[in-house]
Please model this.
Amino acid sequence: MRILYRHTQRGTAILLGLALIAPVVIVVLVLTLDLPINWRAVVVVSIVVLTLIACTGWYFSSMTVEVTDDEVRWFFGPGGYFRIARAEIESIAPVRHPSFAGYGIRWMGPKRWTYIVSGRDVVELRLRSGGYCRLGSDDRDQLIAALTASRR
Model:
């Protein structure tokens, strides 16, 4: 199975958001603990929370999309593949992701999913079975070209 297209987008928006939220989480932890402050508990909880934030950042640090002869597949950072058979795709269209909808893996309703790490440009894959899958990309035109290219 040959790869017709492969592109990796850096998750700038997610990484920036996590970097900005980490200190806020620590301040909230300190302010919500009972007085007198148990600094050992603050340190332990902070380490746990920051570790979870770091793992989330590592996973969503990038998104790679590949188009092969038979399928479209994508994955975040070190994660496993998501995939859709090209035969399952009914139509392809460029769309804009609403800024209020967030980043990462998003459920947008029954059979409607969005996978995005940065920016607002997405490629919507309407599926024959109903619903859609939206893939974020900073290389949207090339992705659409690869998806619309005839299969061998």
In short: The chain has three helices and nine strands. The helical segments are 12-32, 39-59, 140-148. The first helix runs from residue 12 to 32.
